[in-house]
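2.7 Reproducibility. Because tokenized structures are sensitive to small changes in the input, we list the exact sequence used for Polysaccharide deacetylase family protein, including any N-terminal residues retained from the expression construct. No trimming or masking was applied before prediction.
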Amino acid sequence: MRIVFLLVTWLLSVGAMAAPGEVATLDRSTWPEKLNNPTLFDVASRAEILMFARVLLASESLDEPALAQRLGLRTVNMESVNRVRQRLWQRLLTSFNFAQQSCDQDASFCFLVEDMPTLREQAAKFLIGEDSYYIKWAEPSRLFHAQYLDEQLRKAALFPQASSEVDRFGDYERNGDAMHDRLFLLTFDSAANAAPDNTDWVTEYLRKSNMSGTFFVLGKDIQARLAERSVANLQATYSTQCIGVQGWEFRSHSHWQDWQDSVRRSVDLVKSKLPENYVPLFRPPDGQRRSDAEAFFKSQGLHVALWDIDAQDGAGKLKAHQSAQRVLTLMLLWRHGVINFNVKQDGVKTALPWLMTQTAQSGIGWEDCQNAF
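Resulting structure tokens (single pass, no recycling of outputs):
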């Protein structure tokens, strides 16, 4: 009995150490300006880039044991962490180069950044003065970026043993890195929840807004819908939208023996019933997939579709307004990318319209789902 107790205690301690921290979100009302023109979008973008660069730079002073302690892990894959850090720095430099092109119209947060060394130099001394117009934003933003960085570094520390969207296994996997500045793609996961399913509401909202998104569906969900309604009805639901697959069930495709069959069955069903909407994309549930799957996906003519901007709107994570504000903050930080919402959380019906309103005059664009990836 004592051995069992000690074993349970050890397992619980491991679980506790591995538990992720708080999910990052930022109250956008702390930012004093509306994003009602492209220049003001750039001002806010420069500020978020510099703040994230500041916390990213500070994290590099942690040695491996200190980083493991900060992330709540026993060990970290430093090779993966360093690779992800390098990619984050490169994206920050690219983003800032675009964001500073409007400095002649508004010089706020315009500092000399010509290359990586000057970006790191500006990050090291970035500070918001107590008398600054932006002081109410400064500390909430710093906390957001520290939490968001920990989310990314934790995934990097566990990669590839625990796969996620933080890194790619090859060119057959796509995220939003290659998209043009100010261009974003809306995508919607099915997730594990059976209900509510807000697909009908979201697709109608997008059509009324003359927009499109990519919906990653579960094969069993499409099968269940077809048992309740006609193929024509289902085609009407997804009219002008794109459909990729998440597999037959929402479960990890990294350790599931039948993962290949899960993908094939889902693709066959969608291609046969919704051929006008089908796009050859597989989104791994929770980003979990095998590292040796390239040959399979290429043989099926599929790309793995990851994402850059996660609303974290799964059950119990963030409320609708929090996930919407998280998405907007990450749009300002990365300036382009693939946004991931959960279509089976009611919050999407609040978050999506809010996001459209906030960015309507900001000069951003929404990628047509047929042109993505």
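Residues 1-19 have pLDDT under 50 and may be disordered.
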